Amino acid sequence: MSYVVAITGGIGSGKTTVANTFQNNHGISIVDADIIAREVVEPNTKGLMSITEHFGPSILLPNGQLNRAELRQRIFSNPTEKEWLNNLLHPLIREQMQHQLSLSTSCYTLLVVPLLVENQLQYLANRVLVVDVLEQTQINRTANRDKVNIEQIKAVLASQASREERLAIADDVIKNDHTIYDLDSEIALLHNKYLLLSQTSINKEH
Fold it and tell me: Residues that bind ATP, according to the entry (predicted)?
């Protein structure tokens, strides 16, 4: 398995932009927990079969896909159901993340995990990069991107780890309140650093 750098950050922090810049400018492979979370509940997966068995067929859309809105509603005010769902999905997502990491062929791999701190998944990575922005920046970006009201965004922020909790586990930090140009140059510096670290790690193994 290659050297793993986990990227995390709150809603609207720009994690995807940062990860895509590493990939597009430097050819680094990405394993994205959000994409995997969708894949493990696709039709005919163990995840969706278990969910359908538990909640009944009304949890499915007519095309056989998971009705996410319905599922959110079922678990929103029911901590027991939410815990059941997390106990089902988290191991499936972790297993798939580790599988995809093992297939990576770039000199190091980026593991994008929005809830890294909340789910204590730091152990999956050699290093943690936190994309940090001001809370107001998060609110503005998310409101513009998702066209949702500020109360909803604040509720999401309240459910996520605080900036302080994320920064406490960071090995590296990108302050992402600034321009794309600054971001590109900062990522280039981090890329060179990770190349060195991954090379050192390989040398130690041999």
Answer: 12-17
